Amino acid sequence: MRIASIPLLFVLSAACAPALCGKEEPPVAQLEPPAETQSHSTTLEDVHLLENGLLQLGQSLREFVQKTKAQINDILQKLNIFNHTYHQLSVLNSEIKQEEEELKKTTTALKITSEEINNLSVEISFKVDSIVLEKGRLQNKVEGLEKKMSSLSQGLMTKEQVAEIDGLRDVINSQEQSILELLKAVSEQSDQINHQRTKIKILEEKVNAKEYSIPPIEAPTLTPYLTSGSTSTAAMMSLPSDCSELFNRGERVSGVYTIRPNGSEPFMAFCDMTYGATVIQRRRDGSVNFDQTWEKYENGFGDFQGEYWLGLRKIYSLATQGNSVLHIQLEFWKQGRCFVKYRFYLNGAGSNYTIHLTHLSGNLPDPMSNHTGMKFSTKDRDNDNLQDSNCAHDYRGGWWFNACGDINLNGRYFYMRRKGRSERRRAIWWKLSRKVSYSLRLTQISVHPVAALSTTSSTSASSETDFLLSSTNIPQ
């Protein structure tokens, strides 16, 4: 049994040996990643998805915030516009109330005038009736006398009767003459009444139309520069630099003088010898139209004895002397006279005559400080700071406009205070507060050195008091 198994073992060994000797490496199977690695990869993908979602959410939030900011800014802008509109409406409402009060006063005055005219008409009618009655009575008396004369003519009349008849005839003729004179007087009074009614009607139409303006008159050009050839060298050298030098020489009569500031060409100027000031502008009756071109404002226009503008070139030559004071005197229609003074300098033509002001004194509010650093503007040369508009064209006169500012001393001249805000802006006016501005009856702008304030203070104090009211008369 054991011997039989041995061959079997050899057979098995022989069969297995080749397999064992020629055996190759079995193919390596693809291993699956561990469960932890799969979980980690899934977590990273989720993180990336979450990150992208958060970025998109952040971008959406940023866009939402920007849109919200834009909406808030738009709402704030609309609120500002609403507040500005409400303020304008409040100002307009106060002006309408003021206009209503003035119209009520005018209506009351017209009613009183109408009542006086009615009373006069009743009186005239009574007189006419009396005249008619007197005429009828005289006619009856004449008829009686004629009958008496006819009866007397049948008999002999004595001298006394003839004289009586002649006297009666004279009385009748005198009465007829008186009647004719009375009728003539009644006719004249009737014409006067009709004329008054026409004037009242015109006045009512002006009140309704709010028209009190003076028609503009073409402004004459002021006397130009005097040429050196028309004056000797010695006379040129002796000419005063300005009106203050004339004042210091002892001149005290206000009027037109020849001056030569800072060695420039001499020219004529009006000197206010109250304190030796050179007057550069005057408004008082609307006789000169100040809605002029740049050339006119540069060279000057008007009449020294009335209204005029001296000219920017001449004002510049005065300002270049240094230490100049700009003295503005105003008279309102109802609120009296006031003044304000500024330290003053003016650039030349290359800078469009830019003005520089520093407030010194006065009994007026100071809106002119908003105009410092402004260039001069006219209807044909717009240098203001208001885009898409020309203040000089809209306000009918040249000035150092900002946008467009609170002052216009070269606007149209109107009799009486203008009712509408836009109409007042076209007039000569001065803003006294945020809500109140007044048109002006008289203006005068003059220039003098700072030294004149001290050297002439004792002389000019009483005159300043006479011309300008105290600060208690500032319009409120």
Automatic annotation (TrEMBL):
Statement: the UniProt record of this protein carries the keyword S-adenosyl-L-methionine: no
Signal peptide start-end: 1-21
Assigned GO CC terms: extracellular space
Residue ranges constituting the Fibrinogen C-terminal domain according to the UniProt record: 234-451
Pfam family for this entry, one: Fibrinogen_C
Highest rank taxon of the organism: Eukaryota
Gene Ontology biological process: cholesterol homeostasis; phospholipid catabolic process; phospholipid homeostasis; triglyceride homeostasis
Coiled-coil segments on the chain, per record: 89-155
Keywords: Coiled coil, Signal
PANTHER family on file: ANGIOPOIETIN-RELATED PROTEIN 3, FIBRINOGEN/TENASCIN/ANGIOPOEITIN
This protein's name: Fibrinogen C-terminal domain-containing protein
Species in which this protein is naturally found: Monopterus albus (Swamp eel)
